[in-house]
Amino acid sequence: MADQLRQRPESLAQIEVRSIDYIPPEERHGRIRDQFTLWFGLNANIFPVVLGGVVVFMGLDFLWACVAIALGVVIGLVLVGFHAIQGPKLGVPQMIQSRGQFGFYGAVLVFAASIVLDFGFLAAQLVIQADAMNLLVSSISIPGWIAILTVPVVVLTIYGYDWIHLFQRWMTVILGVTFVIVFIQAILRGGLTGAAAGNHAPSFAVFMGATGLFVIAMVSWAPYVSDYSRYLPETISKTKTFWAVVLGCAIPQIFCAILGAYITGLLPHASSTVAAVGDVAGRWALPVMAVSLIGSDVANAYTGMLALASIVSCVKDVRHSVSMRVIGSLLLIAAGTGCALLGYKHFVNNLANFLNVLLYVFIPWSAINLTDYYLVKHGDYDVASFFTPRGRYGGYLWRGLIAYVLAVAVQVPFIAQTFYTGPLVKTLGGIDISWVVGGIAGFVFYLIALRVPTRGETVSVGHEPLGPTAFNAPT
Fold first, then answer.
1. 3-class SS of residue 420
2. What is the secondary structure of 174-194 as a DSSP string?
3. What is the pLDDT of residue 219?
């Protein structure tokens, strides 16, 4: 077991070739602590600092911003932690496992949504990074810095899983120390005054909106999480895997977001949250803030590449295609870079709207995926069938697809956004509870759908509804 759990040095010298394929037992490796350092490094960055500032701009004072941040992170991570356990058990990327709920071709719907999530986040993060570097070296424009910052992202994404884990181990130490220093400098700068120093309860609508930002900031990792635990041995502790991922996300996300809220309260008129960090901590912090997001950039590009490969696999077997990895990575990074170049001038508003739209798409998916895994199939899937339309899950699982579409649709009356306000929002006092409705609806509709028999099937909720469930690895 010790040999299984050690990092394989030889794997760092070559490009990962497994892509969306099942990881066989003899190739499993890694340690529980690698999950903690990976997720710590992915969340200890300038992005949650900016989100913390957004919450203050929404109208929350510092105390209530802290409450909204912590609550949103905890709610989102409950879902993410349970997704993480699926990786070692099934040995496949998270989105491929969705074929167990939607079918070989039916899962393309969520693959496509995942790709939009990936390059959207990549674009947002490139803008934040470029802003930081432009403040340090203004002779290079923000578009110029966006292009420069894509270079390390390309390299790490193409080399894949082991390089990503190694990079994040080093970044955990560097970023942990950096953000503690910045927080100390912020406190020494002085206490909060004005609106941010109050303790008046915000309207419930504003509080729910702020909480929702951090719910989706965490749930947005759900389509990724098994991608980075799928190489772990199947026998590894599920409980320890859960907590390594949850704590690795929660500690830096909450800390950095609270830091962002505090700095924004200190300097409410700064041109951006990144500029405020530079003002408080000094120019030395700006390149670290930019570098802090490289790991998250890579995670978005890597998972987006896997989702793109999953779509291509519907017409061609690309499980071992290095060219698919390279081309897919370049396409995702190009899409993210293009969006960043087009939208960087209106970044903050675009970011808030983008995150809110994602709530409507991924909360129902997460609810259906977890319901199927834990309550219906109990983690018992025919993995070989993930890679063929002639397998146990067929081309389309209409019950899962219909439940998903209905769960997304039922949120519409509860949406409160700048682009649309649902008819029930006013009745609820302006509160956007669409993401709560979507999660509950995904769970309920999926269980109801499973009780509707189709020709030749015996319905049985709590067990695999399509017959015996031997856990067969692909051959």
1. coil
2. HHHHHHHHHHHHHHHH----G
3. 86
From CA 28, how far away is CA 5, in angstroms rounded?
8
Q: Which two tokens stand for residue 193?
A: 């005054």
Nearest Cα neighbor of 86 from 462, 381, 303 is 381
Which residue has 């067969």 as its token pair? 472
pLDDT at position 445 is 97
pTM value surpassing 0.90: no
In this predicted structure, what is the pLDDT of residue 431?
A: 78
How much is the pLDDT for 352? 60
Q: Which two tokens stand for residue 358?
A: 């994602």
Angle in degrees, CA 460, 310, 370, rounded to 5: 35
Beta bridge partners of 416: 421
CA end-to-end distance (rounded Å), the chain: 23
Q: Residue 1 corresponds to which amino acid?
A: M
Q: Which 8-state DSSP code applies to residue 375?
A: I
Q: Which two tokens stand for residue 393?
A: 């899950």
Mean pLDDT, rounded, of the chain: 86
Token pair of 436 as six digits: 């709560």
**Tens-place pLDDT, residues 50-82:** 899 989 988 899 999 999 999 999 999 988 999
pLDDT at 416: 80
Q: Measure the CA–CA gap between 173 and 218, rounded to whole angstroms.
A: 22
* Rounded distance between C-alpha atoms, residue 412 and residue 408, angstroms: 7
Packed helices 398-409 and 347-370: angle between N→C axes, nearest 10 degrees = 140
Q: Which two tokens stand for residue 410?
A: 């039922």
